Amino acid sequence: MSRLNPRQQEAVQYISGPLLVLAGAGSGKTSVITRKIAYLVRDCGIQARHIVAVTFTNKAAREMKERVGLLLRGSEARGLTVSTFHNLGLNIIRKEHQRLGYKPGFSIFDQQDAKALISDLLQGEGDAELADSIQHCISNWKNDLILPEQAQLNARTPDQQLAATLYEHYQRTLKAYNAVDFDDLILIPVMLFRNHPDVLEKWQFRIRYMLVDEYQDTNTSQYLLVQMLVGQQARFTVVGDDDQSIYAWRGARPENLVQLKQDYPSLKVVMLEQNYRSTSRILRAANTLIANNPHVFEKQLWSELGYGDPIRVIRCRNEEAEAERVATDIQLQHLRHKRAWKDFAILYRGNHQSRLIEMKLQHHQVPYHISGGTSFFSRQEVKDIMAYLRLLVNPDDDNALLRVINVPRREIGPATLEKLSGFADQRQLSLFRACLENDIEQQLDARTSERLQRFGQWLEGIRQRCYGDEPMLALRDLVIDLDYENWLRQNCSSDEIAAKRMGNVWFLIDALKTSLEKAEEEDGNIEDAISRLVLRDMLDRQEEEEDVDRVQLMTLHASKGLEYPHVFIMGMEEEILPHRSSIEADSVEEERRLTYVGITRARQTLTFSLAARRRQFGEVIDCLPSRFLDELPQEDLEWEGRDDAPPEQKQARGREALADIRSLLKRHDD
């Protein structure tokens, strides 16, 4: 406990009742959670298998596990659950699948699968936008624990009625496919516990203490899941920060922190206000800005890291000049002060803002990386092989079969699939099972039915081997039998691209091998390994390469939880930050929290940039500086470009900066 400050120590040692830890940015909350787990095991005699710690991302769960591993010796940590909310939900559904009416090896539909299913159910009526909108509605209903019948009763407009009717068909189809979607991973356990108190009691007995991180990001169903699992005993610690709640658009309810006080009158609140990340000047700016939002809990971040450099605000003539200025500024700091590229982060409100800065960084040969780029699992070749894997563990997944039946081509056209579908409906079979039926020949000509049966029997053979002694060998054979590499060559613009994409396929198989080894440690099998892989992708998509020396580009939302020595926040203008839609909806508070999150990513220096004019919809418009700049302590800001300096002075300033870079580059080359 020696390295904890008094507030952190209090949070770790309090176990007499429910506890809310209000942890400001950079205040060492992960240390509190990991130390508390060790304290519960070592000092309170609670076995690790009765402790559950829940967070929102795989990255946070991994970091937590690693840090607990350093505090507890081998056997002490055995059985400890550190997972995401959705992984916990998946675990509950897997263990209770019979009670829920699912077969083992159920599929998990990601956003793309769900959207494809909704489009199918719309039967060509409506466009991609309608499918998106209905998917969003269904997701919100599930997060708010509204089932199809209730959604239909509540529907007022024709659009709502269509979405509610489709919701019912969607759920029925998912069940027929032996599948669940991402939101079901929370909804299904909550409904199970609600309808079966005996099952809830069993899980409450299993979980003696619960810790929840990022509590301000929980939605209605997640709040209820925690409430049910902790029961009357209410032995829990939740950690959150109402000032960092930036996910209202996906159902997060920062008011859940306030709700806790009402639901648990004996709740103790501990504030963590000492920041171990930023200079005092940066924290003063953050505190002053966020004070403009109403608060139930008042807190002031402070630090012992010195007052620090002034916060720069650079106003440029247009968006191109802004991007150029940020790129050259980073290049200059890198050369002049020998700062690593990866020490710089450029943050912005929306992804569309990255294009210009990318071009400028490329032009100046500054290496960069965009967080949240194309997900590994959303690549075509990976989705193909994943569909085969899903079909192996869940033969009822018609969606997966339709994706792969002609990958590679097997000359099975839409007319054949329609007849196969009719035959499967008659027999109440999945498409895959229908392929294995002998009398399918009565529905289709001999050549076509022979193709379908050959496909079905081949895949069934691989499926049987997956449950034998060498599942990984069976999966490698699947890829080889498919001659998938040749299929890629036929469909790629060059052999080089085909080889790269084939590399992704083998990377996936290796990832599955690792997942299978972990599943086997916990008496799992190939089904568990594939479920984990699908879920891991859905939660944090591709792992970012963090150790490469590159400037980091990301949205403000993506920056949450990260920190960098030098941070640039671009586009500090009205209608960008705060966003136009939030101004129109009079919901600027979340935009202010988003800016607060951006500011508190910075350790040593913080720079805001903005454009005086910007091209929009083909015309040039004047831009107003963001209201958030007015809300910062003005004496801590160092403005540039605010005054209309004479043109010759500006040109001289520009020439000096350019000469500076040239001389540094020359010295660098020498």
TrEMBL record:
| Annotated UvrD-like helicase C-terminal domain residues | 280-561
UniProt keywords (A-Z) are: ATP-binding, DNA replication, DNA-binding, Helicase, Hydrolase, Isomerase, Nucleotide-binding
The catalytic activity, as recorded, is:
ATP + H2O = ADP + phosphate + H(+); Couples ATP hydrolysis with the unwinding of duplex DNA by translocating in the 3'-5' direction
Q: Which residues bind ATP?
A: 23-30, 277
Q: Name the EC number(s).
A: 5.6.2.4
Record's GO cellular component, any one?
Answer: cytosol
Task: Report the enzyme's class at the first EC level.
Answer: isomerase
Q: Which residues form the signal peptide?
A: none
Q: Name one GO biological process term.
A: DNA replication
Q: Which InterPro entries match?
A: DExx_box_DNA_helicase_dom_sf, DNA_helicase_UvrD-like_C, DNA_helicase_UvrD/REP, Helicase_Rep, P-loop_NTPase, UvrD-like_ATP-bd
Where is each UvrD-like helicase ATP-binding domain found?
A: 2-279
Which molecular-function annotations from GO does this UniProt entry contain?
3'-5' DNA helicase activity; ATP binding; ATP hydrolysis activity; single-stranded DNA binding
Q: Which Pfam families match?
A: UvrD-helicase, UvrD_C
Q: Which family does it belong to?
A: Belongs to the helicase family. UvrD subfamily.
Listed under subunit, the entry gives:
Homodimer.
Function description: Rep helicase is a single-stranded DNA-dependent ATPase involved in DNA replication; it can initiate unwinding at a nick in the DNA. It binds to the single-stranded DNA and acts in a progressive fashion along the DNA in the 3' to 5' direction.
Q: State what protein this is by name.
A: ATP-dependent DNA helicase Rep
Look up and give the organism this protein is from: Halopseudomonas yangmingensis
